[in-house]
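Exercise 3.2. Students should predict the tertiary structure of the chain below and write it as structure tokens, then compare their answer with the key that follows.

Predict this chain's 3D structure.
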Amino acid sequence: MDEQELTRLLDQAPDGVIFANGEGVITYWNAAASRIFGHSVEAAMGQSLDLIIPEQFRDAHWKGFDRALADGETKYIGQALATRAQRADGETIYVELSFAMVKDEGGQVLGALASARDITERFIRDRDMRRKLRDLEAANKP
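Answer key:
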């Protein structure tokens, strides 16, 4: 597979694909990421990941990002992390993120790759069901 084919695959992936270099600057952003987060490819490229991280989570994010860069791996390998993110219009959404540390041939970390999926509808539906169940259980207690 050549570089053009690989780029086409990533550009057309159904999930958002984002790559940030070691400084946390976005250097790859596909069309699905634009759909999910509301920022065009042109607007996202060269921006800090703060673009999509709600302010109250930034400190924790950057501590984890820096730790993963130093360790050369993420503690979330093979997992999907559900978290909140921020769209271009300021709306908070729920996303499921999977991460990988990208390394060069010598094992040096180049940055972090994330795959993102909007789970807002499912998250809200599940939360509402849990609330209804809790209310039913409370109403049925003697």
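Discussion points: The mean pLDDT is 94. The first helix runs from residue 3 to 11.
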